[in-house]
UniProtKB/TrEMBL annotation, chain A:
Belongs to the GerABKA family. GO terms for biological process: spore germination. It comes from Alicyclobacillus hesperidum. InterPro entries: Spore_Ger, UPF0353/GerABKA_families. The chain crosses the membrane at residues 337-356, 431-453, 465-488. Residues 525-553 are annotated as: Disordered. The gene is yfkQ_2. Residues 529-539 have a biased composition (Polar residues). GO terms for cellular component: membrane. Keywords: Membrane, Transmembrane, Transmembrane helix. This is Membrane protein YfkQ.
Automatic annotation (TrEMBL), chain B:
The keyword Signal applies. It comes from Alicyclobacillus hesperidum. GO terms for biological process: spore germination. Residues 23-196 form the Spore germination protein N-terminal domain. This is Germination protein, Ger(X)C family.
């Protein structure tokens, strides 16, 4: 209880204040003392200013960073005789770049002769800055700023003898995972790039797809210890500013010690944390993010996570895969309807089986009933227990399949197929129709393209089974109604979750029921793109594309 | 929040513990009734009821291995009988002799013994309509000169359950498909119900079971009592006007020894109207049928319209005589399964009220006009016969 209250008080501070407190990184952040006396952003105390004495500066810095053994202090002589020192975090700077553009140019450069009229460089610092051939250069005047540059920004900081200003140089680099195709969202046709853990790379991938100055990328740092860079992306002029403001407010409200993955952010900003349905989409695909941005939605990327968050989303998007928009529309329509069908199967099939075989036997065709009756003749458990047993086993198998090392992964499928599929039926413990039902349900849950949505279906399926097995079809219908009521009240960043269907907006319903051809998708979703609804002109429709006379051909 | 969650969890958990929830019944605790039969017991008063129960354990795969595919064996079902004052009483008696609950939801056929049918089926229909488990799509058949109980014991050569065989026969399109709903509807209207007769025949060639079931003859009721059977030509004639005929083929012998032509029924439309002539009702029966040539075993060239006319006329004469013989027998029996009285009641209620007390006599003496229109198509799909 106690810690909760503290966090709430911390939340009242502006993020700027929090960043200033960097010099106290090693102090317990959530201690009450800190919370009560927020440090102010007024001029830093004199002790924080850099001095002209290089040795003193380095000594102070060494003292501050004494625990961080991966910080490298490299003394050198530059500008023809001046002592200097560069400080950086080992392994996180591009050393080739530092060698070629910082060290080499500085060591070889000569000190500006005092009498030479120098047009630009006035101080040594500026002279040094001029010699350095990297892109980003920033002056640093305080110790805390220097520490932030080194530790948070991962810059190389150059201290010079005789000046009170150090230079922070962008030499970002270090090892990153290569850009690869996301496993969970593979496509047959479409781009195969995926985000990686570096925010810079991810934003590059995004910018490569949306080359407009209207693409807004607002960065902020979240997590008092991790200082994770988080980027809020949207397209100015399409995105509804109310939504953008709401997302920004919710992001700014986050005050926690760490943001390890965007999953943290999702849980901290979603509308209804207790709903099984995800209200924020996550994706590894830059093309998905780009298409969402041009629909007026907002994306959140974070350093250290390849998953971008997209909000607001609706229920129907869960059944739309990225590839739907890359393949030609007739087959996509059929596949989309297949997904709808299998979503219902994934949700209802086991519960319907249990309900019908224990309550409503008259609903089955006679021959089917007799087959099921024959199979159930030897099984010891009631249908509901059998169904729960099999479903839970299946969930365990799935979980085991994810966690197991790849080398042993095939063992799971053998155990699953042989032991549960065959042996259980042959031993007469589980009836064969139940195995079929569970298998079809399992396949159906993989048909849903969005993994986080499948989780909701999986959770609800168990509720359905229990209600279907205890009060029959009545229970299934009652639970369905409850789910529909819940969905209708659910919101994603304030936007109704069932949006084009409820409240009904006919223009956008087409992309829910079908996938219209691209030339017919004239309007952006109304819920996200209020300022700018028209996606394209109508001139690409077939009637406009071909002159009347030629259409006979 | 936590309290609410805990409450929900405990409710769900305790509902899992409930084993006997309301009317939940596992399939393996049911005895699935596929066919029932009713007869008059030997004492002439009480009801002899029989049920045919599917033996699920014999019907599918049980614990591996291929499913039992043997047909024609009596192992796939068992027949239980009991006597009692009413049908419900009989069911209760059978129930008490079985370890499992009788499940009537899948009863597909009700066989009525001839003696029972002659005594009246009203109380049986009442039970069928009132029983919530009972399907109204259950087919009703009458055992032809036989006890229903016997019919339940006859195995089918092709189907594992005899009830499946009867259902398939009923759905074949060449007999009247009379189910309980239609039967009750006929009974509650002004007309009389009818049903297919079910009969045993001996099949010498079959090794598994020499006896088999077939649907033939039409049982004609007067109100709820069986009065007569339409057989042979008359049964066929009634089928023509009953609107149930979908699948049929006819062979006509042409006059003057010119051979035979077989035709296949394409479609048939039939209607009947009551026309009032000088205050008296007369019945018009219209039939329009389209046939394809099935086989030409004659010396005619069917591409010639005048030669085709010969076939048409012969076919027309044959069908008309079949219908006429059916109508004559129905008039003799004073039974009205066609619904002529309904027709009169709907379109001429004043006259119906006057005629109702002596309707049966009026019906028996009613003049009937036939208007049979036959069309034979597609003779030209082939050139003249070889």
């Amino acid at each position: 209880m106690r810690s909760k209250r503290v966090i709430r008080r911390l939340g009242d501070w502006t993020p700027h204040d929090r960043r200033v407190r960097l010099d106290r990184l090693n102090a317990p952040v959530l201690s009450d003392a800190m919370a009560i006396t927020p440090s102010d952003s007024s001029p830093a105390p004199p002790a924080d200013w850099l001095t002209p004495d290089l040795d003193a500066n380095i000594a102070t810095l060494r003292d501050t960073l004494q625990k961080a053994s991966d910080v490298v202090f490299r003394p050198l002589v530059v500008l023809g005789g001046k002592r200097a020192c560069i400080v950086y975090v080992d392994g996180l700077s591009d050393m080739e770049l530092v060698d070629a553009h910082v060290l080499e140019s500085l060591i070889q450069a000569h000190s500006p002769a005092p009498d030479t009229p120098h047009p630009l460089a006035i101080t040594h610092v500026e002279a040094a800055a001029e010699q350095v051939t990297t892109a980003g250069v920033k002056p640093v005047r305080t110790f805390s700023a220097a520490v932030e540059s080194i530790i948070v920004e991962l810059q190389v900081v150059l201290f010079l003898e005789g000046t009170e200003t150090a230079i922070a140089l962008n030499a970002g680099g270090g090892e990153n995972r290569a850009i690869s195709e996301p496993d969970a969202e593979a496509v047959v046709r479409g781009p195969r790039e995926g985000f990686n853990e570096s925010l810079r790379t991810s934003i590059t991938l995004l910018r490569r797809r949306i080359r407009t100055p209207d693409l807004a990328i607002e960065t902020m740092q979240l997590g008092t210890y991790t200082q994770t860079k988080v980027a809020l992306c949207y397209i100015e002029g399409i995105a509804d500013s109310e939504i953008v403001n709401e997302v920004r407010t919710r992001l700014k409200r986050i005050d926690t010690d760490s943001i390890i993955d965007t999953g943290y952010i999702e849980e901290l900003i979603e509308d209804n944390p207790f709903s099984p349905f995800p209200q924020i989409q996550n994706t590894e695909r830059p093309d998905v993010v780009a298409s969402m941005l041009v629909e007026g939605r907002v994306a959140i990327l974070a350093d250290g996570s390849p998953f971008a968050l997209i909000a607001p989303i609706n229920f129907w998007g869960a059944l739309q895969a990225a590839e739907d928009y890359y393949e030609r529309f007739p087959i996509v329509n059929l596949i989309r309807w297949l997904r709808y069908l299998f979503m219902f199967i994934a949700l209802y099939l086991p519960s319907l089986y249990v309900a019908i075989t224990t309550f409503h036997q008259e609903m089955l065709p006679t021959k089917l009933l007799l087959s099921i009756a024959a199979a159930r003749e030897v099984t010891p458990l009631p249908a509901i227990a059998e169904c729960l047993l099999m479903e839970i086993t299946f969930e365990a198998l799935r979980e085991a399949g994810i966690r197991l090392p790849k080398a042993v992964g095939s063992a799971i499928s053998i155990v699953g197929a042989l032991v549960i599929g065959q042996a259980a039926v042959e031993a007469g413990i589980v009836s064969a129709p139940m195995v079929i039902v569970v298998a079809i349900t399992g396949i159906a849950s993989f048909v849903i393209p969005r993994y986080s949505f499948t989780i909701a279906i999986r959770i609800l399926r168990f509720g359905m089974i229990i209600l279907g097995g205890t009060i029959g079809l009545f229970g299934i219908i009652a639970f369905t109604l409850a789910v529909i009521v819940h969905l209708a009240s659910l919101r994603s960043i304030g936007v109704p979750y069932l949006m084009p269907a409820s409240p009904l907006t006919k223009k956008n319903m087409r992309d829910v029921i079908t996938r219209p051809p691209h030339w017919a998708m004239r309007w952006r979703p109304i819920e996200t793109s209020k300022p700018n609804r028209q996606r394209q002109s109508n001139a690409m429709a077939p009637a406009q594309r071909m002159p009347r006379g030629k259409r006979r051909m | 929040m936590w309290r609410r969650f805990a409450t929900c969890v405990s409710i769900v958990a305790s509902s899992l513990m409930c084993t006997g929830c309301w009317d939940s019944t596992e399939i393996d605790r049911l005895s699935i009734v596929t066919m029932t039969g009713v007869d008059v017991a030997e004492d002439g008063q009480s009801v002899l009821g029989s049920v045919q129960i599917a033996r699920a354990s014999e019907l599918g795969t049980t614990g591996g291995g291929s499913p039992a595919t043997s047909t024609g064996s009596a192992k796939a079902y068992l027949v239980e009988s009991a006597e009692g004052p009413t049908e419900v009483e009989v069911m209760a008696k059978i129930r008490s002799s079985l370890p499992r609950k009788l499940f009537m939801g899948h009863r597909r056929v009700i066989v009525i013994g001839e003696d029972y049918a002659r005594r009246g089926v009203g109380q049986l229909l009442d039970e069928i309509v009132r029983n919530p488990q009972s399907r109204l799509r259950t087919y009703v058949v009458v055992a032809f000169h036989e006890q229903a109980q016997k019919m339940l014991q006859v195995p089918s050569d092709l189907n594992r359950l005899p009830s499946d065989a009867v259902v398939e026969l009923e759905q074949s399109g060449s007999v009247v498909a009379m189910d309980a709903r239609r039967f009750a509807k006929q009974l509650t209207s002004h007309s009389d119900p009818y049903a297919m007769g079910i009969a045993m025949f001996t099949n010498e060639m079959s090794e598994a079971s020499p006896e088999a079931l077939t649907l033939e003859n039409i049982a004609v009721f007067q109100r709820d009592k069986l009065v007569d059977w339409l057989q042979g030509e008359a049964a066929k004639g009634f089928l023509w006007i009953s609107r149930d005929l979908r699948d049929d083929s006819e062979t006509v012998t042409l006059p003057d020894n010119r051979g035979k032509v077989s035709v296949r029924l394409g479609s048939v439309r039939t209607s009947h109207h009551v026309k009032i002539v000088r205050g008296q009702p007369e019945l018009n029966i219209n039939l329009h049928a389209i046939f394809d040539i099935n086989q030409n075993a004659s010396r005619l060239n069917l591409l010639q319209p005048n030669q085709m006319d010969v076939v048409r006329k012969a076919l027309q004469a044959k069908i008309q005589s079949q219908i006429a013989s059916a109508m004559q027998q129905l008039q003799r029996d004073q039974a009205d399964p066609l619904g002529v009285s309904n027709e009169l009641f709907k379109y001429n209620p004043g006259l119906w009220r006057r005629l109702e007390p002596r309707w049966r006599e009026v019906y028996a003496a009613m003049p009937i006009h036939y208007n049979i229109d036959i069309n034979i198509r597609n003779a030209g799909l082939m050139s003249s016969s070889l």
